[in-house]
């Protein structure tokens, strides 16, 4: 009696992909790259951004791979619509444009990855899998652009929220996050309890937070205390 084969029900579900590009030849090439992987499957194709939105409504997809330059709606416009329409849908931009402006717009539009067509055969499969793990995927030049943009903003004084606190507020935040009461903080810093409470209120307002737990999480992210 032959041994039973693998149970289809136990096989991992494939990542269902919506592919949008206005060039049929490009779509065909990209589909060949994706469909030859055992865990990836293109379930719908679209020739422009508007059609991509229609396809997302008609098909269950886990991931959308969108070209940037498309008629009717661009990939960037479609990404914004899809992010609102299907919040659980991951979005990758696949483009010929090694362009910082497009990169930043793509990330603002809700894309979690930016892949160049010139290296799609090398990067696209890895980008799809990274997206489904909720990990960003950027080509090396994009990472360099992001770092340069951040350093430029710091150099020009456009500081992030990590630097909007005064040194005293940072001290209070650290002590709050470590679990000290307002009375203990007042004694440690040689200030009044009312001053401590005022600092705490300012911290919550400045950072847009609600309570001690959120202050503690922020302090961990800011490197003021260890998790």
SS-based structural class?
A: alpha/beta
Figure out the total of helices: 10
| Main sheet attributes: strand count, strand direction, barrel closure | 6 strands, parallel
Overall average residue pLDDT: 85
Give the N-to-C terminal Cα separation.
57 Å
Placed side by side, the strands forming the largest sheet appear as: 2-1-3-4-5-6
Helix content: 40-55%
Order of helices and strands: EHEHEHEHEHEHHHHH
Strand content: 5-15%
Low-confidence stretches: none
C-alpha geometry: elongated
Question: Could you characterize what this model shows?
Answer:
The protein is an alpha/beta fold. Helix content is 51%, strand content 13%. It is built from ten helices and six strands; from the N terminus they run βαβαβαβαβαβααααα. The protein has helices spanning 24-35, 49-58, 75-85, 100-108, 120-132, 140-155, 167-177, 182-189, 193-207, 212-221, and strands at residues 15-20, 40-46, 63-67, 90-95, 113-116, 137-138. It has a six-stranded parallel β-sheet, with helices on both faces. α7 crosses α9 (193-207). The protein is elongated and about 70 Å long. The protein starts with 14 loop residues before the first strand and ends in a 6-residue tail after the last helix.
What topology emerges from the helices and strands here?
Elements: E1 15-20, H1 24-35, E2 40-46, H2 49-58, E3 63-67, H3 75-85, E4 90-95, H4 100-108, E5 113-116, H5 120-132, E6 137-138, H6 140-155, H7 167-177, H8 182-189, H9 193-207, H10 212-221
Parallel strand pairs: 1-2, 1-3, 3-4, 4-5, 5-6
Helix pairs in contact: 2-3, 7-9, 7-10, 8-9
């Amino acid at each position: 009696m032959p041994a039973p084969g693998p149970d289809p029900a136990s096989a991992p579900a494939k990542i269902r992909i919506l592919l949008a590009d206005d060039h049929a030849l490009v779509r065909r090439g990209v589909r060949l790259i994706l469909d030859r992987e055992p865990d990836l499957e293109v379930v719908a194709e679209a020739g422009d951004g508007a059609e991509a939105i229609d396809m997302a409504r008609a098909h269950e997809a886990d991931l959308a791979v969108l070209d940037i330059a498309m008629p009717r709606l661009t990939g960037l416009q479609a990404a914004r619509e899809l992010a609102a329409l299907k919040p659980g849908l991951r979005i990758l931009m696949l483009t010929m444009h090694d362009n910082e402006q497009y990169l930043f717009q793509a990330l603002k539009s809700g894309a979690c990855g930016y892949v160049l067509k010139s290296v799609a055969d090398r990067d696209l499969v890895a980008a799809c899998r990274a997206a489904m793990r909720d990990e960003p995927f950027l080509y090396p030049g994009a990472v360099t652009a992001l770092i340069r943009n951040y350093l430029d903003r710091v150099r020009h004084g456009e500081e992030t929220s990590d630097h909007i606190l005064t040194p005293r507020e940072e001290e209070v935040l650290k002590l709050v996050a470590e679990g000290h009461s307002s009375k203990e903080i007042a004694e440690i810093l040689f200030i009044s309890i009312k001053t401590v409470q005022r600092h705490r209120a300012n911290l919550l307002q400045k950072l847009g937070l609600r309570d001690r737990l959120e202050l503690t999480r922020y302090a961990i992210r800011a490197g003021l205390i260890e998790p």
